[in-house]
Amino acid sequence: MSQSGVEIPAGQTGGVAMPGAEKIVLLVRNSLVTLNDALQTGNFTVLRDMAAPGFREANSAAKLSQIFASLAAQDIDLSAVAVIVPQLSQAPGLDLEKNMLHLKGYFPGKPVQINFELLYQAVNGRWRLFGISVQPGMPQAAAPRAEASGSTAAKKKN
Questions:
Q1: DSSP SS3 for 89
Q2: What are phi and psi of 110, to 5 degrees?
Q3: pLDDT (tens digit per residue) in 113-152
Q4: Which CATH number describes the domain made up of 19-149?
Q5: Which of 27, 54, 64, 116 could form a disulfide with 150 if both were Cys (CB 3.0 to 4.6 A apart)?
Q6: Phi and psi at residue 50, in whole multiples of 5°?
Q7: Is the dihedral of CA 8, 11, 13, 15 positive or negative?
Q8: Which superkingdom heads the taxonomic lineage of this protein's source (predicted)?
Q9: Distance between CA atoms of residues 86 and 32, nearest Å
Q10: How far is CA 50 from the centre of its chain?
Q11: CA distance 137 to 125
């Protein structure tokens, strides 16, 4: 059982292993801290450059800035994710055919909770961001709003 209360299966199949609980926490925190830096500075280059090749091809830094404009306009500081333990709302999903890891959950907080849905692709033995959806919400809300993905052109859900 992980710190987030979600059991994480261990083992390796097809060359891609389900990361352990600590690695999952690091992946989520690093992605959201990098997004926070981008939101605070208006520079989405690092977020883009650290992602999987498919994400980089589908999303320029300018496009990411547009995708996350409404999140930036809300002026929410995501830096607390560096010290709060993320809670997974569903078990981590591993797609062995596509070498993808899917994580969905939230960082608890009051008055705002940070909901996230993240997709990572295994690239040269490292999990690289492939899709990101983040939305602040009320403590029970969990619907993603702003998203970017390498699988299709980035789009925004309302």
A1: coil
A2: -135, 135
A3: 999 999 999 999 999 999 999 999 887 644 454 555 554 4
A4: 3.10.450.630
A5: 54
A6: -85, -5
A7: positive
A8: Bacteria
A9: 11
A10: 12
A11: 34
